[in-house]
Amino acid sequence: MPLQGLIFDVDGTLAETEEVHRQAFNEAFAAFGLPWKWERPLYKELLPVSGGKERILHYLTKWHAQDLAAVREKIPAIYDFKTQQYTGAILAGAVELKPGIARLMGEAKARGARLAIATTTHRDNVEALLQHTLPEQGVSLFDAIVAGDEVSAKKPDPQVFEAALRKLRLPVASCVAFEDSANGVNAARGAGLRVVVTPGIYTADDDFSAASSVVSDLGERGRPHQHLAGWKWPDGYVSFAALRTKTEEGPA
Asked: What is the value of pTM for the model shown?
């Protein structure tokens, strides 16, 4: 079946955003008078818990259970503050798109393909990133956006990808997902999608054995990526034409 749709995760996939998230969490904790600080090793341990509010609750339950009753009801407010800090940093230029992202999206749209986002992060975070990194088009570039606050179960549950497919009105065999984590790969595969992985700084050690291809980034002409596993790409970059060829070679 011809390739008709590309579905992208956001954090770690479109851009290397996790350090900005971590810093925003710490700023929120300080603002609420909480003596918590998520250093990088701890944040790596917490990342498999999808969703910011869920991550805070998991941390609170596991490491500060004695404060659960007093702090639990504050989690939505803490997360809202964190989101404000994060979006402010993004709009101020904290990150840029990873190599090959804008190029591949442009190639796909030029060939009539549809684009979607399927993420566990808050929609405000998505819109801030797109506004900063794709200022001429932003959210209008995408035919469907499904954020974490729009589904009842987050990755590795496949709901967010299934919702994106429904919004795209495309069969699963005609689409490819792009992810950076094992949670994301498992969610996409649960929805029946083939997956191209570009690991993030916190997910390089994840198990990507279920992915079709694992590369350091999507690459650019003259700036090849590092091939890590699975499908290999002509000239060291993932193009829409090469993706179409790969997907037509066999089933998901």
From this structure: 0.95
Task: Say if CB 20 and CB 95 are below 8 A apart.
Answer: yes
Of 51, 70, 91, which closes a domain?
A: 91
What does the pLDDT look like over 140-184, one tens digit per residue?
999 999 998 899 999 999 999 999 999 999 999 999 999 999 999
- Residues 81, 118: one domain? no
Alpha helices (H) in 134-181, listed in sequence order: 159-168
C-alpha 193/C-alpha 191 separation (Å) is: 6
Residues 122 and 53 in one domain: no
How many C-beta atoms surround the C-beta of residue 27 within 10 A?
17
Q: Kindly report, residue by residue over 208-242, the tens digit of the pLDDT.
A: 999 999 999 999 999 999 999 999 999 999 999 99
| 227-230, strands of its sheet edge to edge | 144-146, 114-118, 5-8, 175-179, 194-197, 213-215, 227-230
Q: Which two tokens stand for residue 239?
A: 């193009």
Which of 72, 91, 110 is the last residue in one of the domains? 91
Q: How many CA atoms lie within 13 A of 127 on its CB side?
A: 8
Instruction: Give catalytic residues, as residue numbers.
Output: 9, 11
Please say whether the beta carbons of 124 and 112 come within 8 A.
no
What residue type is assigned to position 80 of the chain?
Answer: D
- What CATH number should be reported for the domain holding residue 56? 1.10.150.240
Domain of 44 in residue numbering reads as 18-91
